[in-house]
Amino acid sequence: MKKTMLGLSIFAAATLLFGGAAFGGNIVIKGSTTVLPIAQKTAEAYMQQNPSVRISISGGGSGNGIKALIDGSCDIADSSRFIKQKEVKLAVERGRYPVPFAVAYDSIVPVVHPSNPMVNVTLAQLKDIYEGKIRNWKEIGGPDRPVVVVSRDTSSGTYEVWREKVLKKKRVFPGALLQASNGAVLQAVAKNKNAIGYVGLGYLNDTVKALMINGVTGSEETTLNGTFPISRPLFMFTAGWPQGETLRFINFVIHPQKGQQYVREAGFVPLY
C-alpha cells in the first residue's frame, strides 16, 4: 500500500509541475482529528505563501470527513484510514469518485497515566483489555487497580484501524469510555490513574505515558520499518482528481521540501 500511495503522490506532484498558473480560492477540509495537526500546519504555511487563498479546517472523525466529501460539503476529506467499499459505492452513486493521497505515516500508540508502572503490553493483552476480559491491571503484571478503558468513537478512522489490528474486528466492550478526538483521549487518560487509551504519534506528550507493544516502541523508525504492529498511512481524499487550488494545496502537502517538513513538525512520519 505504501508504494502505491507514494506513487500516486509523486504523480500528483508531477501534475503540479506541468500545470498552469495559481489562482486564489477557498478550500474546505473536514475529517480526521489525527490528520488535523498536519492539515492545520500545512494550511497555515500555504496561506502565508498564497495570501489570496483561504482554507477552513474542521475535525469530526474520518467517517464524517468522507461523508462530507460524498455530500459535497468539503473539498478535501482527511482520513486516518482507507475509504470503505460501501463509501466508494455511495460516492459513485452520487457522481463522485474519491481519490486517495497518502500524506504521512503514523502509529497508534497505547497510553496510560504517568503513575502507571506498566511499560509494555502485548497485542493479545490489548485485545483482552478492549474486549473487557482483563479488568484489573494486576492480571498483566500491573498494580492492583481496575482498568478504565478509553476508546475513540465509531466514526473515528483511528478506532477502525484499532478494531482491525487489535480487536481483530471484534467490537470494543460496552463499558469503554468513548471519546470524539485524540485530544479528548489524552485528557481522559491524563486525569485517570487507572485509564488506558490510544492516540496517534503526533499527539504523544508528557501528560501520559506511551506503552511499548510486544517490546517495540512506537516511533518514526519503527513505523517505517514495520516493526511497530499498529502503523498506518494517513490520507487526504478528493472527489475526483483535484483541480485548481485544491490540486496545488495537495501537491504542497506531499512535496518533500515543502509540506512534508510540517508533517514532522506535527509529530508524524513524512512520506520520504
Q: What's the short version?
A:
Strands 1, 2, 3, 4, 6, 7, 8, 9 and 11 form a 9-stranded mixed β-sheet that branches. A two-stranded parallel sheet has the order 5-10. It has helices at residues 2-17, 36-49, 62-71, 85-93, 123-130, 157-165, 182-190, 220-224, 244-254, 259-265, and strands at 26-31, 54-60, 76-79, 98-112, 120-121, 148-152, 177-179, 195-200, 209-210, 212-213, 231-239.
Description:
With 272 residues, the chain is α/β, with parallel strands linked by helices. The protein folds into two domains: 2-105 and 233-265, Periplasmic binding protein-like II (D-Maltodextrin-Binding Protein, domain 2, 3-Layer(aba) Sandwich); 106-224, D-Maltodextrin-Binding Protein, domain 2. It contains ten helices and eleven strands. The chain has helices at residues 2-17, 36-49, 62-71, 85-93, 123-130, 157-165, 182-190, 220-224, 244-254, 259-265; strands spanning 26-31, 54-60, 76-79, 98-112, 120-121, 148-152, 177-179, 195-200, 209-210, 212-213, 231-239. Strands 1, 2, 3, 4, 6, 7, 8, 9 and 11 form a nine-stranded mixed beta sheet that branches. A two-stranded parallel ribbon has the order 5-10. Helix 2 (36-49) links the parallel strand 1 (26-31) and strand 2. Helix 2 crosses helix 10 (259-265). Mean pLDDT is 91; it is low at 1-24.
